[in-house]
Amino acid sequence: MPFVPVDSIDPQRLKIARETLCSVFNIPSLHPFQEKVGLNVLQGKHTMLDVPTGGGKTLAFWFALFYYWQPGCTDEASNKIVLVIGPLVALLEAQAQLLNSKGIPAIAVTSNTPDLEQALTTKKLGQNQYRVGFLGPEMGLTPLFHEKVLNSIPFTKNIINLIIDEVHCISEWGTNDFRPEYRKIVELAARLPPGTPITGATATAPDEVMRDILDVLGLPADTAKVQVSNAKPNVSLAVQQLQNEPDSFADLLLLFPNSIKAPEEFPQTLIYVNDRQTAEKIQDFLRDHAPSCFDPKKAFEFYHRHVHEDRKVDIQTRIASGELRAVSATDALGLGMDFRSIERVILWMKPRTFLSTVQKIGRCARDFTKRGEAVLYITKNMRTRCYAESESLREDVETGNEGSEGSEDEGEEVGHDRELALEEMDQQEGENTEERVDRPSFQQRVSKKKKQSEIQLRDERFLLEFIVTEACRRRVWDRFFGNESKGKLALGVAK
């Protein structure tokens, strides 16, 4: 049975949906983009929602549902279903818990779900007893989910929207958050009723990444786009050259205020690193050098993918409560998590991509009425290297050679003398070994860059410019995302 869009939008029902959503979530009003997404769903339109971190994209997921249904309503014809795909089990479970607390029947079907078959049958996700279902892409492709939910007539008759949260995870270009399983979501979409609207949501998708996402999902290039600038005017941006050996972490002492008298005076901080060993070492450094007013084990932790799930949940809870003052972490921490009290983000050494840089900075001062700061710490050696790489890429752009075909010999000639000088600096200054292991050398990348994709090259070019520019770094950010052509987020409305 195909999805049937609304023939004619009822203004009164829209008004009720708007008022109920504001009442349930205790907000004064909705952003225009939140209503626009809901209208697109009702009209059967696929939509890419590109809204900044902390800008309220999740509320846009429920507007179409509230057009049909209100909390407490038992009318069978009103009981529509929204299916949400997300990347993190803990986040899916937290979202389901929040909706249930507000009277919206929801279930997260995850690897933690006890008696999975019962959750899909006796508890009746497939029998239309929930208004929202949360799951990861892996669960959505299991034979059990297909049999108990996707083959169920009550479910297929009432689903109105497939939402892919953090949809940038689909793209393997220019982001550390790439999830191979996400590229298979198209198989799940194919099992839904024909015409079911798909909504993809992200805070970081420049045009070239958006095109890649649409291509993977098999959606047309003219798919509706609802876009809001992801600029962070409330967060200061800086690049700081290390004054001490990176392995000493001595520069991090500057994070402690001079006359700190209580842990609460230490701005809540996320410190992002490129490997788990560094995350653990920074935790130990902060604990060893914290002023006496701290209980170090309560104030500082590390976080990476090898941390046990129970401990991850504990750390997330303590960040949200404000008990933890700083967490040193890899990319495993933060995606989709609503930490509203983070005042400072530190990037320790050069990030792998510009997109991942922006994603991490976006977790700072999610409340746009608050101030925050983001600082990238980098060695003198790596900063010099970035200048050299940036100049090489700039020359390629000016001569029209960026991304063109070329022999490896041609690539090896570019910046050869400069590379030898940089390698000598590596040996003299003791560049962080993890950084050199994780990233290919400049010469290796120069010899291969003509074979790299346009997306990768553009991401690298903007990352280098962000690091070396002597002008405003916001301009680099805004040009990368085309923010000047996007709508602006009205402050003091929905969150």
TrEMBL record:
Residues 255-415 form the Helicase C-terminal domain. Residues 38-223 form the Helicase ATP-binding domain. Its EC number is 5.6.2.4. It catalyses: Couples ATP hydrolysis with the unwinding of duplex DNA by translocating in the 3'-5' direction. InterPro entries: DEAD/DEAH_box_helicase_dom (IPR011545), Helicase_ATP-bd (IPR014001), Helicase_C-like (IPR001650), P-loop_NTPase (IPR027417). One of its GO terms (cellular component) is cytoplasm. Belongs to the helicase family. RecQ subfamily. This is DNA 3'-5' helicase.
